[in-house]
Amino acid sequence: MKVIITSLFLFSIQLFAGIGVGYSDVGSLPVELTSFTAKQSVSGIELQWATATEVSNFGFDVERASLVTQNNQTNWEKIGFINGHGNSNSPNKYSFIDNKPLNGKSQYRLKQIDKDGAFKYSKTVEVVSVILKYDLAQNYPNPFNPTTVITYSIPASSNVLINVYNVIGERIKTLVNQYQEAGSYKINFNAVGLSNGIYFYKIQSGNFVEIKKMLLLK
Predict the structure, then answer these.
(1) By C-alpha distance, which of 127, 119, 159 is closest to 48?
(2) Are 134 and 205 in contact (CB under 8 A)?
(3) Going from the N-terminus, what domains does the chain have, and what CATH number goes with each?
(4) How far apart (Å, rounded) are the C-alpha atoms in residues 218 and 146?
(5) Model confidence pLDDT, tens digit, residues 34-83
């Protein structure tokens, strides 16, 4: 007799700097699912899930739908397939990257398929995707006195270092030195106590390095 093991797991929506990171309730499946997450990375939307046990698991279709409906129906499309482990009593981890994600809100679900062709769907997870790139914007206002705003974005989580230098290359101030999630950020630079003149601000994040010039004019 074929044994069907069912499980529920929790999915909640969290946002980090405007980027969707998801966790979702999944309905009854013939595997024991222990987690299912979705987050944006530099490569796209990264889906990860894990099982504790599996029974006759052929694999998972990964399906995606935009939140645009036609005739009150959501149009799902298969964007990939991941092989299952058949029968397994040990934990297994899976991952899939949607390297051409939709910009804005979209939904993902798993279609778990038995070896005999039977299948069931997971519940859907909604993710907010923002197509980011490494960027260091020109400070505003510029010229400034005595404060200005610096905006930057990173497409992948990493340590971010932003320093301010004078014209002879001396470091004047460190504005950011911490690990940050992918997203867009703004910081204020207060030049009280500094002399008029040209200054430079430099960002380092992963392999990305960029320098821009700003003018303090009192």
Answers:
(1) 127
(2) yes
(3) 13-129 (2.60.40.10), 135-216 (2.60.40.1930)
(4) 7
(5) 888 888 776 788 899 988 889 999 999 999 986 655 566 678 899 999 99
Quote the pLDDT of residue 8: 30
3-state secondary structure of 157: coil
Average pLDDT over residues 5-33: 43
Q: Is the pTM of this model over 0.85?
A: no
Write out the E strands in 42-121: 44-66, 69-70, 73-74, 77-88, 92-98, 104-114, 119-121
Other beta carbons within 10 angstroms of residue 148's beta carbon come to 22
CA distances for 136 relative to 166, 203, 210, 214, angstroms: 18, 7, 7, 13
Neighbour-count burial of 161, counting CB atoms closer than 10 A to its CB (0-12 exposed, 13-18 middle, 19+ buried)? middle
Q: Convert the pLDDT of each residue in 91-135 to its tens digit.
A: 999 999 998 888 778 889 999 899 999 998 887 888 877 767 899
Judge contact between 201 and 150, C-beta under 8 A.
yes
Give the separation between CA 102 and CA 83, rounded to whole angstroms. 24
